[in-house]
Amino acid sequence: MVEASTRNVAISTPTSGVIAKVNVKVGERVTQGQPLFHIDGRDLEAQLATRRAAATLATLQVREAEISLANARRRLEQAKPLHDRNVISPDEFASRSHDAALAEARLASARASADMAAAQLQEAETAVGRLTVRAPVAGDVLQVNVAPGEYAQTGILSKPLILMGDTQTLHVRVDIDENDAWRFTRGSSAKGFLRGNSAIAFDLRFAYVEPYVVPKTSLTGLSTERVDTRVLQVVYSVSRGDLPLYVGQQVDVYVDVDGSAVARSDAHLNADSPH
Fold first, then answer.
1. pTM
2. Which segments of the chain are extended strands (E)?
3. Residue-wise pLDDT tens digits, 28-86
4. DSSP 66-78
5. I need a surface site. Which of 86, 191, 233, 261 has the fewest CB within 10 A?
6. How many other CB atoms are there within 10 angstroms of residue 188's CB atom?
7. For residue 51, how many other CB atoms are within 10 A of its CB?
8. Looking at beta carbons, which pairs linking 19-27 to residues 24 or more positions away fall under 8 Å?
9. Sign of dihedral through CA atoms 30, 241, 145, 235?
10. Alpha helix ranges (H) inside 85-215
11. pLDDT tens digits, residue range 74-101?
C-alpha cells in the first residue's frame, strides 16, 4: 500500500466546537505549524481579554505595594535616630515598625496575586491557542472532511477531520507472508509494478522493517476485518516524480531474494514516517 513518508496523519481537534474557518484545500502543500482550521471560541477569547486586564491590574497593584513599602521603610529609618534620642515616643516608633511590616506583607500578597493572574492569563492563552489546529508536519492535504458551520468532535473519529502527509517521497508498505519472512534480508532491493499497467515499473529503496509480525488487514474497506494470514511489514521508499502513484493505492512488489526477484507481495502506498 502506498503511504506518505510521514504516514497518513489523521488530524483531530483538542477542543470540540463549531468550525469557524477552514484554511486549506485538498491537494494544498502546507508547512509545519500552518493553520488548518479554526474552532469558534468567542467565549474563550472574551475570557482571555478579561484575564489580560486582571493581569495588568495585578501588576499595577504590585507597583503600588512596592511604593508603599519604600515609604514605610523610609519613615522607619527616619524614626530610628529620633527614637534613640527620645525625640519620639516608643509608641510612635512601634507604629512605624508595624507599618513597615504591614507594607511588606501587602507586597507579598500583591506579588502572589500577580503570579496567579499571570498563570490564569497563560491558561486562557493556551485555551485560545488550541482553537486553531495546525499542521503537525509539512506535507500535502489529502482529505478535508470539515466545513465552516459543522461541529468538530474530539477523540478518534471514523473519518478524520483532515488527512495529510508528505507525498513528495512516498512509502510502500509491503506485506510479506510469515511463511516467507525467513527469506527476507534487511536491505533487500525491490521493484514495484503499477496495477492496471504492469509496464509502469519503478525501483524501490529499502527504508525500514517493522520487526513485529501482525495480522494482515483485509482490503475490503472494513477496517476491522482480518484474515488468518500474519505478515511481516517492510517499508520501501520511492520518489514520486512523474509516477502516477497515489496514497492508498495498491501496487505489486517483487522483493529480491538471493539475487532473484521471486517473492511477490501486495503493497499499499501510504504516508509512513521513516524509523
1. 0.74
2. 2-4, 9-11, 17-22, 29-30, 35-39, 132-134, 139-144, 151-152, 162-165, 169-177, 190-194, 197-217, 226-239, 250-257, 260-270
3. 999 999 999 999 999 999 999 999 999 999 999 999 999 999 999 999 998 888 877 88
4. HHHHHHHHHHHHH
5. 86
6. 19
7. 21
8. 19/146, 19/147, 19/148, 19/149, 19/150, 19/151, 19/152, 20/148, 21/148, 22/144, 22/146, 22/147, 22/148, 24/141, 24/144, 24/162, 25/141, 25/144, 26/141, 26/142, 26/143, 26/144, 27/140, 27/141
9. negative
10. 90-129
11. 999 988 888 778 888 888 889 989 999 9
Could you tell me the three cell numbers for 11? 488530524
Neighbouring C-beta atoms of residue 12, cutoff 10 Å:
14
What are the b/e assignments for 122-151, b being 16+ CB within 10 Å? eebeebbeebbbebebbbbbbbbebeeeee
User: How much is the CA Rg of the chain, to the nearest whole Å?
Assistant: 33
Class of residue 164 by CB neighbours under 10 A (exposed 0-12, middle 13-18, buried 19+): buried
State the DSSP string of 190-216. EEEEETTEEEEEEEEEEEEEEEEEEEE
In whole angstroms, give the CA distance from residue 263 to residue 177: 10
CA distance 77 to 251: 88
